[in-house]
């Protein structure tokens, strides 16, 4: 089955710890995205990648980092600098970086602070 | 930055009734998309309407777009309990290719 796989589904972070959320797609899509969702709110863009080996900051990039070394993978690291990391994190991809493309989403990772 | 604002925030109806959700946005757009999210899951794309289109249909879904009022509506006809979910509009601004800005969503509950 083609799609986007996020892991783990639940993740707990201790104070001062960096954690990495995995996102893998087998759709052969060029563009990938990370969104953060807080309860009762919409999605806010953290980082995006138009193509492999490229990524750009979104609206709330502070305290996060990403890499795009492989086309199918776009991991997100939540660093200790992110003081309020508890949220639902969604990874998405689209065929190309274009306003006419629809996004395909993974099932999300719920990150909580211990 | 949040571009879309949705109204109402929550909607509760009986099975078989129609559900209408509205989305307003602030700046000019290339297109507007609607997504659905079941609780604790990822979003699923429903429909895309371009800025030069006024209405679009997909099964029981009808989307309208009024660029003069900077607003869109999503109508779900003959709703089913399985339609219970949150619905989000997302806009792609002129020049911001690929970058979607999501609204805060409408939570729909369809009672059997």
Element-level helix/strand string of chain A:
EEEEEEEEEEE
**What are the secondary-structure elements of chain B, in order, as H or E?**
EEEEEEEEEEE
Q: What is the count of DSSP helices of chain B, taking H or I runs of 4+ residues?
A: 0
Low-confidence stretches of chain B: none
Mean pLDDT over the full residue set of chain A: 94
Can you summarize the main beta sheet of chain B? 6 strands, mixed
Q: What percentage of the residues of chain A does DSSP assign to strands (E)?
A: over 45%
DSSP E strands of chain A, number: 11
Quaternary organisation of the protein chains: heterodimer
Which chains make the largest contact? Answer: A-B, 32 and 27 residues
The secondary-structure class of chain A comes to mainly beta
Q: Helical stretch count of chain A?
A: 0
- What coarse outline of chain B follows from CA principal-axis ratios? globular
Global Rg of chain B: 13 Å
Helix amount of chain B, in percent? under 10%
Overall pLDDT of chain B: 93
Structural class of chain B: mainly beta
Biggest sheet descriptor of chain A = 7 strands, mixed
